[in-house]
Design a protein that fits this description.
The protein has ten helices and twelve strands. The chain has 379 residues and is α+β, with helices and mostly antiparallel strands. A hairpin with a 6-residue loop joins strand 3 and strand 4. Helix 2 crosses helix 4 and helix 4 runs antiparallel to helix 5. The chain is globular, with a radius of gyration of 21 Å. Alpha-D-galactopyranose (GLA) binds at residues 28, 32-33, 35-36, 168-169, 171-172, 330-331.
């Protein structure tokens, strides 16, 4: 893909790029909707990425192009007007530039920009975080800035919140920014602070992505966010990460049943993340798998952000040999299921799971066998 980025850049702009950066997609390993509640979450950067190539210009012009879309988005430097329709993708890098301004970082005076990707969009693997992080790396270097990685992640989050208008947390950008091969990224979202948890050898990741639309932006994510904030307020805590399981009983009768269930999910899910870190340290993969599947059950029953397709995939996977555990990954209401398996779970086994889902729902999920990878980097 690096060669493709160079080549497409040459074809588009008639010269070589000066800078190329890569940022990976991510899977949410465990910690569903814990991030914006001040909790902890574990994620993995994956070996599917987005590359941004850039060369500076001196005429005050910002040109954006994407290998996935025809045409060029031409912007006069400093014009942050939101683009619509086919050009809307450029709002991500534009949002990053705008965030640089807010964070006191210089921005490049002019450039040609090109994005290429092997990350399937709409699979819940955070292609938006990847374009934001890769853009942030090349913009910073082109402007002569060398901010800490935390700042680049903040810029990416600012861009995302500004663009999508959903109250997303730090998970996607933090994992894309801090990923490491054979490791999970643990984020304590209160800081946020980042560290890495080694993965025992022999662990495999599979993604099953049903073709149903990824419906995060229809307001249900924001509704869950509001419910969590309402629960925290009723408990008199700044965020649900501060609530104890015992305190949850006090919610009875003071909030709706649904709000009480959302809170229980978040509090118990944060405990599962910690238990997962301990099980990983002990090399107890069976326990890790059990926690993954318990996380899904909680999303399904308490947080109610699963779908029949995702539930079916999880149930089928859990009943398949060599699968440690499976769960929905990411925001939910669509998106994908992640399974953690041994090497014994192979393409044939994955095919059988996909075929069972196709027989039941009439459409075959996209299947990806993923490896963990390094976080965003200038190449
Ligand atoms: C989406 C958001 C993340 C996180 C997950 C749910 O992926 O972007 O910030 O909230 O949903 O855990």
């Amino acid at each position: 893909m690096r060669a493709e980025a160079d080549e497409k850049f040459r074809v588009t702009y008639g010269r070589a790029p000066e800078l190329v950066a890569r940022a990976p997609g991510r899977i949410e390993f465990i910690g569903n909707h814990t991030d914006y509640n001040g909790g902890t979450v574990l994620g993995a950067a994956i070996d599917r990425s987005l590359w941004v190539a850039l060369a500076r210009r001196t005429d005050g012009q910002w040109n954006f192009s994407s290998a996935q879309r025809p045409g060029l988005v031409r912007v006069a430097a400093g014009d942050f007007t939101r683009r619509a329709g086919a050009d809307a993708w450029a709002n991500y890098p534009l949002g990053v530039l705008q965030a640089f301004g807010v964070l006191g970082l210089r921005i490049p005076a002019g450039f040609d920009f090109l994005a290429v990707s092997d990350l399937p969009p709409g699979a819940g693997l955070s292609s938006s975080a990847a374009i934001e992080l890769a853009s942030a790396l090349v913009f910073a270097r082109a402007a002569g800035e060398d901010p800490p990685r935390e700042t680049l992640v903040r810029a990416a989050r600012h861009a995302e919140n500004h663009n999508v208008g959903e109250p997303f947390g730090i998970l996607d950008k933090g994992v894309s920014g801090f990923g490491r091969r054979d490791h999970l990224v643990r984020i304590d979202c209160r800081g946020p602070s980042y560290d890495r948890v080694p993965l025992p050898p022999g662990v495999h990741f599979w993604i099953f992505n049903p073709p149903a639309a990824h419906a995060l932006v229809d307001g249900r994510y924001a509704e869950r966010h509001r419910e969590c904030m309402a629960a925290a307020q009723a408990l008199g805590v700044a965020c649900l990460a501060d609530a104890t399981p015992a305190a949850l009983d006090a919610l009875q009768g003071r909030v709706t049943d649904a709000v009480a269930r959302r809170a229980r999910h978040v509090v118990e899910e944060i405990a599962r993340v910690d238990a997962c870190v301990a099980a990983l340290a002990a090399g107890n993969l069976a326990e890790v798998g059990r926690l993954l599947s318990a996380s899904h059950r909680s999303s399904q029953v308490l947080f109610e952000n699963s779908t029949p397709e995702l539930d079916f995939l999880v149930a089928t996977l859990i009943a398949t040999p060599h699968v440690y555990g499976a769960r929905l990954t990411g925001g939910g209401f669509g998106g994908a299921v992640m399974a953690m398996t041994t090497a014994g779970f192979d393409a044939r086994a994955a095919d059988q799971v996909a075929a069972a889902a196709a027989a039941r729902f009439g459409a075959r999920p996209q299947v990806l066998h993923l490896e963990t990878a390094a976080g965003a980097e200038l190449l």
